[in-house]
Amino acid sequence: MHKETDILIIGAGPVGLFTVFEAGLLGLECILIDNLDKIGGQCSELYPEKPIYDIPGVANQTAQEHVEALLEQIKPFNYEVFLSERVEKIEEISGDEVSSWRVTTSEKNIFEAKSIFIAAGAGSFEPRRPPNIDDPDRYLEKGVSYAVRSKEKYRDKNLLIFGGGDSALDWTVELSDIAKSIKLIHRRDEFRGAPNTEAQMRELVKEGKIELKTPYVIESLIGGDQISGVELKNFETKEIEEIHCDELLFLFGLNKKLGPISEWGIDMNNKKISVDTEKFETSTKGIFAVGDINDYPGKLDLILCGFHETTLAVQEAYRRSNPGERVPFGYTTSNTKLQKKLGVTD
Ligand SMILES: Cc1cc2nc3c(=O)[nH]c(=O)nc-3n(C[C@H](O)[C@H](O)[C@H](O)COP(=O)(O)OP(=O)(O)OC[C@H]3O[C@@H](n4cnc5c(N)ncnc54)[C@H](O)[C@@H]3O)c2cc1C
């Protein structure tokens, strides 16, 4: 397959989705490509049911609701999405005034675009597997998970949560009134997550609603077709203990696998893509990096920062698609074309 567009967006996370909106306002068309099998990036993959409180003007919204709202917002615009495809190769095609880019995916599809927006977040997701366990994935969907897709899955289940970061703490608190029992297991009695969530977790321990087991590490999985328990090793005494459970959640974080991005000849800093703060352009003209994947002084990995970045980057993408033309500026409140598409009459 061979397709052409104005902006080829690598990554269909929140920032990739909002790029479609800002590009659409300027009349630019987009193609989104994501190697996940779903839209929404980290929001849908890592914490769909957790509320987000810092989207401007939205008091709170679960991460999945946020993704749905972004999809609703870009409905009026022309874009296509290709999922379960990884962008592998980027090549320059020289043109009269500005060059274009040819992108090849893992499915051997070819896309041509005037601008490329890398909105690849943390790169391709690879949850960290439990150390020392041979092939834990043999129990995937049979008691072993690396993310919470649905809270209901854990209703009335005996659940073991492993990890010491935000995800492990958040889900321990969040699932405490859903699961039949929860044991949070960590190798030390110190946590890397938000102090407030750690305090909530410790309160639940005091109330007897969950059990905290430190310093423990997993020694082996027990089960036939389905997980039925684990062996834990006390990190200090080295004693082994067997624990029964129905479900295991390994929340050891993600391996930020940049994948092919590091081979595209773009300047990087500490596994992130260096950009300017005027156009959020990389060291290669016509290739922009927005959202969590980029790096500049003062960078914060927050959704709203990504929205700002891509809004400015799209201005330059317009100039590349329409050389010599002034970038139109207008408030959405007076954008009659958009209002027509949305069926707003007044
Ligand atoms: C538990 C948790 C809670 C959070 N809470 C908040 C919060 O309250 N407020 C807030 O602002 N932020 C929060 N964040 C951070 C927020 O989710 C990120 O800032 C945001 O997701 C970044 O969006 P993005 O579009 O840049 O990247 P991502 O959401 O990471 O999406 C990037 C996408 O690119 C894809 N991709 C990567 N490489 C390729 C490739 N080569 N080819 C094709 N596709 C590729 C990935 O599969 C992924 O889907 C939280 C994060 C976590 C983990």
Properties at a glance:
346 residues; alpha/beta; FAD/NAD(P)-binding domain; 2 domains; 5-stranded parallel β-sheet; 7 helices; binds flavin-adenine dinucleotide
Name of the CATH homologous superfamily of the largest domain: FAD/NAD(P)-binding domain
Question: Quick check: average pLDDT?
Answer: 93
Order of helices and strands: EHEHEEHEEEEEEEHEHEEEEEEEEEEHH
Architecture of the largest domain in CATH?
3-Layer(bba) Sandwich
The stretches of 5 or more residues where confidence is low (pLDDT under 50) are: none
What's the total helix number? 7
Helical fraction equals: 10-25%
Shape: elongated
Structural description of this entry:
With 346 residues, the protein is of the alpha/beta class. The protein has 2 domains: 2-125 and 255-341, 3-Layer(bba) Sandwich (FAD/NAD(P)-binding domain); 129-252, FAD/NAD(P)-binding domain (3-Layer(bba) Sandwich), CATH 3.50.50. It contains 7 helices and 22 strands. It has helices at 14-25, 41-46, 63-74, 166-175, 195-206, 303-321, 336-341, and strands spanning 2-10, 30-34, 51-52, 61-62, 79-83, 87-93, 100-105, 110-118, 124-127, 144-145, 158-162, 181-185, 211-213, 216-223, 227-234, 240-244, 247-250, 254-257, 268-269, 272-274, 287-289, 294-295. The strands form 6 sheets. Strands 1, 2, 5, 6, 7, 8 and 21 form a 7-stranded mixed sheet that branches. A 5-stranded parallel sheet has the order 10-17-11-12-13, with helices on one face. Helix 1 packs parallel to helix 3 (63-74), helix 1 crosses helix 6 (303-321) and helix 4 crosses helix 5 (195-206). The longest helix is centred in the last third of the chain and has 19 residues, at 303-321. Bound molecules: flavin-adenine dinucleotide. Flavin-adenine dinucleotide is lined by residues 10-16, 33-36, 41-43, 46-47, 52, 54, 86-87, 119-125, 166-167, 259-260, 291-292, 301-304, 306.
